[in-house]
Design a protein that fits this description.
- With about 200 residues, the chain is mainly β.
- The chain has a single domain (about 1-200), classed as Beta Barrel (Lipocalin).
- It contains one helix and ten strands; from the N terminus they run E-E-E-E-E-H-E-E-E-E-E.
- Strand 8 and strand 9 (about 170-185) form a beta hairpin.
- The longest helix has 7 residues, at about 100-105.
- It is elongated, with a radius of gyration of 19 Å.
Length: about 200
């Protein structure tokens, strides 16, 4: 998957930072286990993203981002007509943000590493159009546990809207929109739009 996004981070003391973030490449896996004779299943997935900052209003030079990791485990309940699936579970995210106070003190960009666990609720449904269908999934997540290398732990929420279109029995294309709003001593807002393809096996 390839994605572009806008990131804004600010506090009233140190700085206001706005930059464009690019996902150079994202590789991932997702799968489901369906319990026999039941409308219940388990969904799991994990992805690894290499990031780059393309432009910023703060400082200059390149930023060496660590690999971002996103993962989830959801319980899934399919309605009796099999058209709608309700999701509940946890998301995990390992990402980086600016340490604004240290960046201000050192006069250069300093990153902080964040690990977050979210509680997630969502809904998924396949929508038919003429002779084809598109799979859609919407999730809303709230932070449960947060740890930052700076000691300033974030809290907040994120939402994801995902769609995919199966092209044949082996291949599909997809798009994902993500909005994230977190706060600690600074406020962090992330908006991303990504596109990619997947292989079924």
């Amino acid at each position: 998957m390839f994605f572009m996004g806008d990131v804004k981070q600010s506090n009233s003391v140190d700085a206001d930072v706005a930059f464009t973030q690019k996902g150079v490449i994202t590789l991932g896996w997702q799968g489901n286990y369906y319990f026999p004779i039941s409308n219940h299943s388990i969904g799991m997935g994990i992805s690894f993203s290499e990031l780059d900052m393309t432009k910023s209003n703060y400082g200059s030079g390149s930023v060496d981002y660590p690999t971002e990791v996103n993962a989830y485990t959801y319980g899934e309940y399919r309605s009796k007509d099999q058209g709608t699936t309700f999701l509940y579970g946890v998301d995990y995210e390992k990402s980086s943000s600016f340490d604004l106070s240290e960046s201000n003190n050192q006069g250069k960009i300093v990153l902080e590493d964040n690990s977050l666990i979210y509680g997630t609720l969502g809904i998924a449904r396949s929508i038919g159009f003429s002779k084809t269908s598109i799979f859609t999934k919407l999730t809303l997540s709230k932070t449960l546990i947060s740890k930052s290398s700076s000691g300033k732990n974030y809290s907040g929420y994120k939402t994801n809207f995902y769609i995919n279109k199966k092209m044949n029995k082996d291949f599909y294309i997809f798009s994902n929109f993500r909005y994230q709003n977190l706060s600690t001593s600074s406020d962090l807002q992330v908006i991303r739009l990504g596109f990619g393809f997947g292989v079924l096996f």
